[in-house]
Design goal:
With 186 residues, this protein is of the alpha+beta class. The chain has one domain: Aspartate Aminotransferase, domain 1 (Alpha-Beta Complex). It is extended.
Length: 186
């Protein structure tokens, strides 16, 4: 960049080049709605109930991970210390891809993400794993007792990912169960 000139032939200062690289290149404007959202999030995080919520998310995840392992699934870290778990499908369903699993579960109204696992021979578009988390269901008020039932729903779909009747039956069970845990329980 040294000696770079403007169209008028003036030498550009390094500070000018850096400023133009940072803004708007990798930094956007101060978006008021983003600032407001962060302020609300930080305010919620300061409330003692947030710590209770986070503890519940973690407890739910630990119980869910154990329920998956009890059903023969391989959890990449042999459990979880946080809100999510990465499941290697190859152990229980060697031919099932993360892409097919994700699609079948979404059709059953269960949200997961396909995810690569260590030493995955499949592409990032297919994958051999799925990632499952507990924040959304914990936000709806779910406790540890429900985690086994959710794992059962997931296992039923993954056992027959191409069977529309199984997916439909699980979707009905999911919606019936989650009716007791509304999105907005004000």
């Amino acid at each position: 960049p040294w000696g770079k000139k403007t169209p008028k032939g003036e030498i550009r200062l390094m500070s000018s080049l850096l400023d133009s690289a940072v803004f708007p290149g990798i930094q956007g404007g101060p978006l008021e709605h983003v600032i407001a959202a962060k302020a609300v999030a930080f305010g919620e995080a300061l409330d003692p109930s947030y710590k209770t919520y986070q503890a519940q998310v973690q407890k739910n995840a630990a119980v869910m991970a154990q329920a998956f392992m009890d059903k023969g699934y391989k959890i990449i870290s042999d459990g979880t210390d946080n809100h999510s778990m990465l499941i290697d499908l190859r152990t229980k369903f060697p031919d099932l891809t993360g892409k097919v699993a994700e699609k079948a579960l979404v059709l059953a109204d269960i949200t997961v993400n396909k995810n690569m696992v260590p030493f995955d021979s499949r592409s990032p578009f297919l994958t051999s794993g799925i990632r499952v988390g507990t924040p959304a269901i914990s936000t709806r008020g779910a406790k540890e007792a429900l985690m086994g039932e959710i794992v059962e729903f997931i296992d039923n779909v993954l056992s027959a990912p191409e069977d529309a009747a199984v997916i439909k039956a699980v979707r009905e069970q999911v919606n019936q169960t989650m009716a007791d845990y509304p999105l907005f329980a004000w």
